[in-house]
Design goal:
heterotrimer, B: MetI-like fold, 14 helices, C: alpha+beta, D-Maltodextrin-Binding Protein, domain 2, 4-stranded mixed sheet, 4-stranded antiparallel sheet, 15 helices
Chain lengths: 330, 313, 562
């Protein structure tokens, strides 16, 4: 029990620290949101019109106006009430609405590819470990090592160039085109069509980590005494692979999956940028670019809470699945 | 993984399982002994990695002699086709692509070497102290800091730090990458040292009255050298990739030529629409090959710490 | 990320020429395309559809808002219309919802509201609507985009009164310089907006405007607008369906244009000649009008930049032609040191200055001037200050602004060949802004706006009250502080007499070409990249009737290509 209480205590303390950092980080950045918004609206080379900048300042509120402590308490206060404020970029929409629009895109694209990557990667990794030093193993290991070294955004650019620009098979930007968002076949088809290129990048690079991780853990488990014992006792090979080695090797992978699912909420900034995909990653990049403090704070908070919760769940899961961990920590 | 810039693939981002794995690795340490070079060299992948890395280092060190021009020169005619004067043609602003590529080697190697080094040092100091004093308040504080560093979204942090500097030099990029990427490794080091701490040689040192610091850095650290090396190469790989990603977002040091800034400029200048694919393709390839080399070398180093892997060809 | 210039931007360009008409009627631009190339040889048929890039730079689908004050309004151009529109190149006025205006002294401005205009819900436009649209900024400072009710560029208003068809604004003092902002105020339907409690936070989903189009559909990406048959100048609108879609980067925009998925684009496309025009020279065109000037801006509060001889010297040694080639593929031409955009602003040039005012590139002369001014070459081969102390120049440039970086590369190379120890510092753009505010820089690049009202562009650049403060970026970044100039700017912004205006502009121009407070490099573009397979009549070098900031005017010029 102490193990679980400690985990929860840690969760709360980290949450507070992260929330505070989350408040400080955007405010460390130089730049006035009103001036930045003005430049964005007018273009880089434009007459500096004080009247328009003043109007924007009045609209967005002047964050430099109040002292930092006051702002911090206001921030904690509204956070506890679940108020996240109005986005500057999408004024006067509130940030929850804005995030709500971008969230499904990331959830579907990153979530689906993550789960597929996990299943494919784990299976390939386990099989490679089982058939170690065969041709299959070297192809999988070498191949994934090489692909894993390709910078994902570069791969994205090449794929976009080849299939979007040169061949013209797939759209080069956006999440959908002419259809109207909703539960209709036309839109879903459209969205899938647009997600193929970004998804392919995530599917090429995604399984690598799982393959190598699973393979290494499995090889180690295959060398353990209990596997040797089972072999000596004449347990069939397949059973050893599945029931003994793979099952134990899966443990770190499953907690890894929980963590990856948590950090998924941050979106894929670089990939979404390359494909102009309307998810949380691109939204984060926009918020940073526009000094959209309310939106950026909410997005970061979202990511942090996701990661923390995933951590907590992973730890709990581990505590339940592997009694050794519980003992070691208490 | 949330940022897409740094993708730690080492076991350190697995919460507890990683620790177990690391502990097993730590067990294997002493087996390495003085045969380390021959063990690494005997591995084909590691050999390839070492050779490629060597070539890159030569290219970087002798860039002034190998490259036809200074990498920062932009006074050529713009958009020249590849020719004897310009092996890979010129950019839209009149830079020689081949020269930029060769000079860019320097930046990537520098970032890899020092970014990896600094991140490893921070991780070592934090992880080892925290692990050695496991259960005390020192450990609590350091573990807490490490965990906060693990959950803070890295990219916005990096962008903020970048935005705060007056001069975006390559050293600043290195500094930023190092201080944002140490946490995972520190956590792994902590669990490794916890397993080593109760080993006989440490107990012996304790009884002979050595001070804690001496024990940590004189007795325990050397026995982890292959793990540290592996950590270093992992961090270096991450740093090289992070520099490219940052530069691609336009956050790098644009006054020195790196592969990331080449990609950024190519993308910004619409290289694809103008059909200048060499400009976009070559820097990424150079980057991929370098990272492959790092990874291959790390294969060899893994063999030192994990004898189970050693039979691999 | 600085790829677009949005609509309501440059509507606010006022000028000396506007004031020429202060006491009388204005000459009206009859909206007739001039005789030019194939771009204007259209027919009277209707154009089925024209596709333009989205006006909003950001869109997460589904967040609909047409509130023209919102930073993220899906269009600010085609529903709510202004009182008048001024061509920022030749400064002619086009009456829009107001048919004429009249200054009764510099503190009283009257507009005559056009009759026969209807809102898209069928209600007629009334002078009360105009009064309401001007008054709204009084209650809500966040909506006062023209600065009607505060003291920016002239005195604040005290009253707006309706008299028959006329709306009269009374100011507490001289407000002549506000004119261009005021004519750009969007006119709102009072009968709808008066019922809104908080227009600042109002999400306008069903816009009712006077504009040429009405909302047909929006699916989160693609905004479709239909032509209004009862638009007040419906005879001039040939476009049946206007589609605003997509935020493209350079590569995507070039592709869309080439494929016909876009009819016009005004963001940056590097090397448009190769990336676009060469692929179909008969249909594909571009025209980059000068919007203003990119200027080298020294920090006049620091030595040696406070020495006019030093500024004059380096100004001679900068290769503007190479900057033009490296930064803009040779499209934007080297700029006149006067700060005026030539040839469009030729009329404002002092008569005795009809010579070429683009400074020639002459390193030898620059070195001569530096020698003469006492900046001798030291032992290390670099020049020192006259007192022998080392002279170093740090040129700060916005990292990632590729054209600026290319420009600075050339300048720093030029400075080095004058044996000046110059180096480049690349900083985050926000950080460069911070340096402009704090004054901690040696040299930066700046934009000098080339609008019609010289008092608000060259004037702002040189007026001491426009020196940036710790909290505000303003135009006078180089910190030119001269009481005589201040007096000239003040006189110019309140002047109503064309002869006097020209004399005052002449004084500012004289400061530019003899004092070198900033050094003009090349003109900055207002881009228009377009294809003529569906619509013709786009603005061009031959017929510069509008720039990309006046899409509403352009809509009235487009004719079918078939």
């Amino acid at each position: 029990m102490r193990y679980f209480l400690r985990r929860i205590g840690f969760f709360l303390a980290t949450l507070w620290a992260a929330v505070t950092l989350n408040f400080i980080i955007p405010r460390l950045q130089p730049g006035d949101p009103a001036e930045i918004m003005f430049k964005k609206l007018q273009g880089r080379d434009a007459e500096l019109d004080p009247a328009k900048i003043e109007a924007l300042r009045a609209m967005l509120g002047d964050p430099a106006g109040k002292n930092l402590w006051e702002q911090y308490w206001n921030y904690l206060g509204s956070l506890s009430r679940g108020e996240l404020g109005l986005s500057y970029t999408y004024f006067p929409y509130d940030v929850a609405t804005v995030i709500g629009v971008a969230l499904p895109w990331t959830l579907v694209l990153v979530g689906t590819t993550l789960l597929i990557s996990f299943v494919v990667g784990t299976l390939l990794g386990a099989f490679a470990a089982w058939r170690r030093n065969t041709r299959f193993d070297s192809i999988v290991t070498l191949g994934s090592t090489f692909i894993g070294t390709l910078p994902a955004f570069w791969l994205a650019l090449l794929i976009l160039f080849a299939f979007g620009y040169v061949l013209g098979w797939f759209p080069t930007a956006g999440g959908y085109d002419a259809s109207t968002p909703g539960w209709n076949a036309e839109f879903i088809g459209d969205a899938i069509y647009h997600s193929i290129l970004p998804a392919s990048v995530l599917l090429i690079t995604g399984p690598i980590g799982w393959i190598l991780g699973m393979r290494n853990t499995m090889i180690m488990n295959l060398g353990e005494d209990y596997v040797r014992l089972a072999r000596a006792k004449g347990v069939p090979d397949t059973q050893i692979a599945l029931r003994y080695a793979a099952r134990n090797a899966l443990l770190p992978s499953i907690t890894g999956l929980a963590l990856a699912l948590g950090s998924m909420l941050g979106g894929q900034i670089l990939i979404e940028q390359v494909f102009d995909y309307p998810g949380l990653g691109r939204l984060t990049a926009q918020a940073i670019d526009n000094k959209d403090y309310p939106l950026l704070q909410a997005l970061l908070l979202f990511t942090i809470v996701g990661v923390l919760l995933a951590n907590l769940i992973a730890d709990m899961l581990y505590g339940i699945l592997d009694p050794r961990a519980r003992k070691a920590q208490s | 993984m949330s940022t897409g810039v740094t993708q730690p693939t080492d076991s350190s981002n697995l919460p507890v399982g990683g620790e177990e794995l690391a502990a097993a690795e730590a067990e294997a340490v002493e087996a390495a002994g003085p045969r380390w070079w021959s063990i690494i060299w005997a591995n084909r992948k590691a050999r390839v990695g070492i050779v490629i890395l060597g070539l890159y280092i030569l290219l970087g060190v002798f860039a002034p002699w190998i490259a036809p021009y200074e990498g920062t020169r932009t006074d050529f005619e713009a958009l020249l086709e590849p020719s004897a004067e310009h092996w890979l043609g010129t950019t839209t602003s009149g830079g020689d692509i081949a020269s930029q590529l060769i000079w860019g080697t320097r930046v990537s190697l520098l970032v890899g070497l020092f970014g990896g080094l600094f991140a490893t040092i921070i991780a070592l100091v934090v992880g080892m102290i925290s692990g050695y004093f496991e259960g005390t308040w020192i450990d609590e504080v350091l573990s807490f800091v490490t965990n906060v560093a693990l959950v803070v979204p890295i990219l916005p942090l990096i962008i903020t730090l970048m935005a705060y500097t007056e001069d975006r030099s390559i050293w600043f990029t290195i500094f930023v990458i190092a201080i944002t990427s140490w946490a995972g490794a520190a956590r792994a080091k902590r669990s490794q040292i916890i397993t080593l701490r109760n080993r006989d040689f440490v107990t012996a040192a304790k009884f002979s009255g050595d001070r804690s610091w001496t024990i940590v850095f004189r007795e325990i650290m050397p026995s982890m050298s292959s793990l540290i090396m592996a950590g270093f190469f992992g961090a270096a790989t991450g740093a090289v990739g992070a520099e490219a990603g940052l530069s691609f977002l336009g956050l790098g040091d644009t006054s020195s030529v790196s592969w990331g800034t080449m990609l950024y400029q190519a993308n910004q200048q619409g290289a694809l629409a103008q059909g200048l694919w060499i400009w976009l393709f070559v820097p990424g390839l150079a980057l991929a090959i370098l990272i492959t080399a790092f990874t291959f070398v790390n294969f060899g180093i893994d063999l030192l710490s994990n004898p189970h892997l050693r039979e691999d060809g | 990320m600085t790829r677009r210039i949005t609509g309501f931007a440059a509507l606010a360009m006022a000028g000396a020429l506007a004031l020429t008409a202060c006491s009388g009627r204005i000459q009206t631009n009859q909206n007739q395309p001039g005789p030019t190339d194939g771009n204007t040889a259209g027919t009277d048929a209707m154009i089925e559809q024209v596709t333009l890039p989205a006006e909003v730079a950001e869109n997460v689908g589904g967040l609909v808002n047409f509130n023209p004050f919102s930073p993220n309004a899906l269009t600010k151009t085609y529903f709510y219309e202004p009182l008048m529109i001024r061509n920022s190149l030749n400064c002619t006025m086009t009456p829009w919802l107001a048919t004429e205006y009249k200054w009764e002294g510099p503190d009283k401005l009257t507009f005559t509201v056009r009759e026969g205009v209807t809102w898209s819900d069928g209600q007629p436009l009334t002078p009360d609507d105009v009064k309401f649209s001007l008054d709204i900024g009084k209650d809500f400072p966040a909506l006062d985009t023209a600065g009607v009710w505060n003291d920016t560029f002239g005195k604040h208003a005290t009253d707006v009164a309706v008299n028959g068809n006329n709306v009269t604004i009374t100011f507490s003092g001289n407000a002549a310089a506000k004119f261009d902002s005021i004519i750009a105020v969007k006119v709102l339907p009072k009968h709808i907006w008066e019922k809104i409690d908080d227009p600042v936070k109002y999400i306008d989903k069903e816009p009712v405007g006077t504009g040429p189009f009405t909302l047909a559909s929006y699916n989160g990406r693609k905004l479709v607008l239909d032509r209004r048959a009862d638009y007040w100048q419906a005879d001039k609108i040939k476009v049946e369906k206007l589609v605003l879609e997509g935020n493209y980067d350079a590569t995507q925009a070039a592709l869309k244009l080439n494929a016909g998925g876009l009819d016009a684009y005004w963001g940056e496309i590097p090397n448009p000649q190769v990336a676009f025009v060469d692929k179909n020279p008969t249909l594909n065109h571009f025209w980059y009008a000068p919007a203003g000037t990119t200027v080298l801006t020294p920090n006049l509060t620091k030595a040696p930049f406070n020495d006019v001889k030093f500024r004059e010297a380096y100004s001679q040694g900068i290769n503007k032609d190479e900057i033009s080639t490296k930064a803009t593929y040779g499209i934007m031409k080297p700029a006149s040191q006067t700060g005026l955009k030539l040839p469009y602003a030729e009329d404002l040039m002092p008569d005795d200055l009809k010579t070429d005012t683009v400074l020639p590139f002459d390193t030898a002369k620059a070195e001569q001037l530096l020698d003469a001014a006492g900046y001798a070459v030291g032992a290390d081969g670099m020049r020192t200050n006259p007192d022998g102390s080392p002279l170093k120049i740090k040129f700060t440039v916005q990292a990632g602004w590729i054209d600026y970086e290319s420009t600075v590369e050339v300048i720093v190379r030029n400075l080095k060949s004058m044996k000046l120890d110059a180096s480049t510092v690349k900083s985050a753009p926000d950080n460069v802004d911070a340096q402009k505010k704090s004054g901690e820089f040696d040299m930066v690049l700046e934009y000098l706006h080339g609008g019609c009202e010289v008092a608000r562009n060259i004037g702002s650049k040189l007026a001491s009250d426009q020196i940036p403060t710790k909290t505000k970026v303003q135009s006078n970044v180089q910190r030119w502080n001269d009481p005589a100039t201040d007096a000239t700017v003040a006189a110019l912004s309140g002047s109503t007499d064309p002869g006097e205006q020209k004399k005052l502009v002449g004084e500012l121009v004289n400061t530019m070409i003899t004092q070198f407070p900033v050094t003009s490099l090349i003109y900055a573009p207002a881009r228009m990249i377009y294809r003529t397979d569906k619509a013709v009549g786009w603005p061009s070098e031959e017929d510069p009737y509008a720039t990309n900031s006046d899409m509403l005017v352009i809509m009235t010029h487009l004719r079918s290509a078939k």
